[in-house]
Design a protein that fits this description.
- With about 290 residues, the chain is an alpha/beta fold.
- It folds into 2 domains: about 60 residues, ATP synthase, gamma subunit, helix hairpin domain (Helix Hairpins, Orthogonal Bundle), CATH 1.10.287.80; about 200 residues, ATP synthase, F1 complex, gamma subunit (Pyruvate Kinase, Chain: A, domain 1), CATH 3.40.1380.
- Helix content is about 60%, strand content about 15%.
- It has a 5-stranded mixed sheet with strand order 3-2-1-4-5, with helices on both faces.
Length: about 290
């Protein structure tokens, strides 16, 4: 049976841990509010740009710009976006599991794969795996800005243009709500044209008139498109991370409270049993003296 002093120390340690998890939940909630506002503001612009350029890519000569050219698909680049810190539930585990399944599927198709990583958790995971790491970015989410999306997007554009890989995919957590995230595998390079059948009405239309001309427009819009999409993906991941951390810390705080109640009850029972034993010893001693 544990001593009363041991139980008091255990209750005190769990109480201190509960204070930490509660504080982390409040910090994550404050960060989530800002991150949610940023992604909700960025989504309409990024989605509209993606729809317009996807529709445009069907109406232009895809050989006119290197970012539109379709290749054999023998060499793939997979960008895995994770967090820099833990204590956010299954946020990173879900991404890494999906990334592993996707990479194994690529290898089954006899494709060569390279990996680029955003976040320390992904870097630490893939360091112990056999897939080659082409590039890695860490400490992105502490002060996330458009420059981070610009940097990552520009690197991917340069490597795709040079022919380092034929297709690029991004795996990340899409923010749905404060308690829900969805792992997404999104094709980044090259842009996929919408299908003729079942095409949304927003993507239908006739030919375009270009000013000043088609080549100048494509060279201006396409690099910006990929940079904007990369920034949107980082914002999605940032908001999803804070939502997952807030939910995880809320669950940890409630579990700590339940554990404190159980230990306090056990402590009181143990203390009562010790007092009862002492009283019985005293009564027994008095009876023996009679």
């Amino acid at each position: 049976m544990p001593s009363l002093q041991h139980l008091r120390r255990k209750i005190g340690a769990i109480t201190n841990t509960q204070k930490i998890t509660k504080a982390m939940k409040m910090v994550a909630a404050a960060k989530l509010k800002r991150a949610q506002a940023r992604i909700l503001a960025a989504r309409p612009y990024a989605h509209k740009m993606r729809n317009v350029l996807a529709n445009l890519s069907r109406r232009v000569n895809r050989a006119s710009h290197p970012l539109l050219q379709k290749r054999a698909g023998e060499v793939l680049e997979v960008v895995v976006v994770t967090s820099d810190r833990g204590l956010c539930g299954a946020f990173n585990a879900n991404i890494l599991r999906k990334a592993t399944e996707f990479l194994q599927g690529c290898e089954a198709r006899r494709a060569r794969v390279t990996v680029s990583l955003v976040g320390r958790k992904g870097r630490d995971y893939f360091r112990r795996r056999h897939w080659p790491i082409r590039h890695q970015w860490t400490d992105v989410f502490d002060r996330l800005s458009y420059e981070h999306g610009l940097d990552i997007g520009q690197d991917l554009i340069q490597q795709f243009t040079k022919g380092t890989f034929d297709e690029a995919y991004v795996i990340y957590n899409e923010f749905k709500s404060a308690i829900q995230q969805r792992v997404v595998v999104e094709k980044l390079f090259p842009i996929e044209a919408p299908d003729e059948d079942g095409e949304p009405s927003s993507l239908m239309g006739g030919s375009y008139e270009y000013e000043p001309d088609e080549d100048v427009l494509l060279h201006a819009l396409l690099p910006k498109h990929f940079q904007v999409q990369m920034f949107r993906i980082l914002l999605e991941s940032s908001a999803a991370e804070q939502g997952a951390r807030m939910a995880a810390m809320d669950g940890a705080t409630r579990n700590a409270g339940e554990l404190i109640k159980k230990l306090t009850l056990y402590y009181n029972k143990t203390r009562q049993a010790a007092i009862t034993k002492e009283l019985m010893d005293i009564v027994g001693g008095v009876e023996a003296l009679k």
